[in-house]
Amino acid sequence: MSALLPGILQADRVALGRALTLIESYNKADRHLASDLLKAVQAYAGGAKRIGIAGIPGVGKSTLIEALGMHLINKGLKVAVLAVDPSSRITGGSILGDKTRMPKLARHPNAFIRPSSTRGTLGGVTLATGEAIVVCEAAGFDVVLVETVGVGQSEIAIADLVDLLVLMVLPGAGDDLQGIKRGLVEFADIFCINKMDSNALLARQAQADLRVALRILQTSADVVMCSALRNEGIEVLWETLEKYWDTMQRSGELQNKRSAQSERNFEHYFEALILMAVKSVDKSFQGQELSPRLRAEQLVERLFPHLQDQ
Ligand SMILES: Nc1nc2c(ncn2[C@@H]2O[C@H](COP(=O)(O)OP(=O)(O)OP(=O)(O)O)[C@@H](O)[C@H]2O)c(=O)[nH]1
Ligand SMILES: [Mg+2]
């Protein structure tokens, strides 16, 4: 473990890759090593702008990350990309697709792209991604972009990991908010209407409609338009993100947000670990013909023997 730290601090790809594999491991011995490693990198963490990119499949997240990532690299920044796939599509080639959708970034020495698997991760993919962000920060990346494919729950989960969440939508989003769920809107800091090249008029209309809707909902979210494919609107998107981030940092909101996220992530870990412990104890009842009630009672007794009298 300690051998990995110098490599991580130098952004050595092999060390980074090993560290992230360790973090994603379900194996108990690995989990202890991962905890030690995270403790060691913690001192070097916190320095990146953490940006989530969410939206329905095919909206253009990977294409946008390629364009935004190269924009940042041209500004002299180092960019890490964590692709999170909360569905089980990891074997379906979507991650492979991601690499081919980010050809320039994938080859650039100042970029690091890492797909995450959902399988075998303590508490789901979200927690491991949060730790991967910290490792990337220790490696000196200035911006960490987190792509998440899902709709609904996964954006909400990702909102607990990043400083700012970009929700990508298609032109036409203004009509019916395109199935953008109400709960989700409050988690997005910036709406990005992509593929404006396919219908500029509709995109502009969507921007106006979304702005009105957001004002009614009293959120401070902004709406930008871009064409990830044609590399248009990327600068405005980044300027908007920077403006939001700087304002948050100056007001102290960034620190508050990260502290609140840390608290919620503790709760996620705690629940995940408790659930794992409970399930492993429950396994010891296997083969016994217990009624559901008796099994539950015995399980609680075994877990909390000191509560027996109550
Ligand atoms: N016309 C147009 N097409 C785009 C634009 N951005 C992305 N696309 C295309 O949309 C398709 C999907 O793009 P991706 O970047 O893979 O979308 P994604 O959101 O990452 O998709 P998943 O990872 O599968 O969820 C590809 O064929 C892209 O070339 C754009 O601005 N304009
Ligand atoms: Mg993608």
Give a brief outline of the structure.
This protein has 310 residues and is α/β, with parallel strands linked by helices. The protein is 54% helix and 12% strand. The radius of gyration is 21 Å and the shape is globular.
The helix tally amounts to: 14
Distance between the termini: 45 Å
Which residues form runs of ≥5 with pLDDT under 50?
88-94, 119-123
Which class best fits the helix and strand makeup?
alpha/beta
Oligomer: single chain
Largest sheet: 7 strands, parallel
Strand content: 5-15%
Q: Order the strands across the largest sheet as they lie in space.
A: 3-2-4-1-5-6-7
Mean pLDDT: 85
Global shape: globular
Order of helices and strands: HHHEHEHHEHEHEHHEHEHHH
Quick one: how many beta strands? 7
| Rg value | 21 Å
Helix content: 40-55%
Write out the distinct hetero groups bound to the structure: guanosine-5'-triphosphate, magnesium ion
What does this structure look like?
The protein has helices spanning 4-9, 13-24, 28-42, 61-74, 94-101, 103-107, 125-138, 153-159, 173-176, 182-185, 200-216, 234-251, 253-283, 292-303; strands at residues 49-54, 79-84, 111-116, 143-148, 164-169, 190-193, 222-225. With 310 residues, the chain is an alpha/beta fold. A seven-stranded parallel sheet has the order 3-2-4-1-5-6-7, sandwiched between helices. The radius of gyration is 21 Å and the shape is globular.
